[in-house]
Amino acid sequence: MSDLHYPVKGQCQCGHVSFTLKAAPKMVIACHCKECQKLSTSAFSITSIVNADDIEINGELKTTRRVADSGNENVGYFCPSCGNRIYQLNPAAPEMIKFKAAGCLEDTRMIVPTMHVWTSEKQGWVIIPDDVQQFDKQR
């Protein structure tokens, strides 16, 4: 991916929210928990962890709040028109963004999971490469 250049632009499904990723994600996590399966309507969700300063988001967003079993609060930001989840954050650590819409970027080559979490709840057909970190639960 040495030919991948930042910034990389993207937008939600309907185009009302746009974003620019200015630097590579710190890590890319595939979460296999049942909640992420519901959220993504797929076998897992992908989250790119980025510094808040490394992403620019334009457009109106709606929010949802959820408290995890750990007690951590997650605030989800999504497009009010198409419903695409754009990002999440923990209000106690707003400098770190959990970018959920990396699949909407114009170039998605950086979205390669470096870690898989909640593998204890993964779908049986999902095969995780041996050289990628795996955790039965949240890290």
From TrEMBL:
Annotated keywords: Lyase, Metal-binding, Zinc
Keyword Lyase: yes
UniProt keyword Glycosyltransferase, yes or no: no
Gene3D superfamilies found in the cross-reference section: glutathione-dependent formaldehyde- activating enzyme (gfa) (3.90.1590.10)
Residue intervals of the CENP-V/GFA domain: 8-119
Protein name: GFA family protein
Taxonomic source organism: Vibrio rumoiensis
Coiled coil: none
Family: Belongs to the Gfa family.
Pfam families tied to this protein: GFA
Domain of life: Bacteria
